Amino acid sequence: MTIEAVEYPRTPLSERKQSGKNWERIGWSFMRISGVLLIFLVFVHLYSNLVAGDGVSQIGFEFVVAEKFSVPFWLIWDALLLVLALIHGTNGMRTIVNDYVYKPGPRKALITTLWIACIVEIVLGLIVLIVFAVEPCVQGPGSASICS
């Protein structure tokens, strides 16, 4: 088993290998920026849902779909929270895979699977948000409306 040598961290930029974009640096920066944004997004989300108004007792289908998602601001807020959280988590898992999977084949397969799962979850989550924003009253089994 061979492990690629890692450059000495204090190697001057002029001596480092340049191979286009530095994806590791972009990923590192994204994790820091998205982490700070996620803290803000999550705490405002929790406050608006659990503290403001009637508190926990207000949480229900009618509140989330009819009241909250009728305001485009909260729809965008929750969509941003969903997308950032999934990409942040997937990038963290990618880092773990890079650290512990040494063979290039399995590493590439795992990372590809991670990103495919991330994209599928983002698409499904956004579909749910959009569907409930456009048509909040869904017909249940036996043509009974959930909103009635």
Describe, in plain words, how this protein is organized in 3D.
- By secondary structure, the chain is mostly helical.
- The protein has one domain (25-138): Fumarate reductase/succinate dehydrogenase, transmembrane subunit (3 helical TM bundles of succinate and fumarate reductases, Up-down Bundle).
- Helix content is 66%, strand content 0%.
- It is elongated, with a radius of gyration of 21 Å.
- InterPro entries: SQR/QFR_C/D (IPR034804), SuccDH_FuR_B_TM-su (IPR000701).
- It is found in: Membrane.
- This is Succinate dehydrogenase.
Indicate the CATH topology.
3 helical TM bundles of succinate and fumarate reductases
The helical percent reads 55-70%
Query: Termini distance?
Result: 64 Å
Strand portion:
under 5%
> What is the SS-derived class?
mainly alpha
Return Rg in Å.
21 Å
What string gives the helices and strands in order? HHHH
Please report the total strand number as a whole number.
Answer: 0
Please give the largest β-sheet: none
How many structural domains does the protein architecture include? Answer: 1
Tally of contiguous helical segments: 4
Chain-wise SSE layout:
Elements: H1 23-51, H2 61-68, H3 72-100, H4 104-134
Helix pairs in contact: 1-3, 3-4
Transmembrane segments: 26-47, 71-88, 109-134
Protein name: Succinate dehydrogenase
Main location: membrane
Highlighted features:
single chain, 148 residues, mainly alpha, 3 helical TM bundles of succinate and fumarate reductases, 4 helices, 66% helix
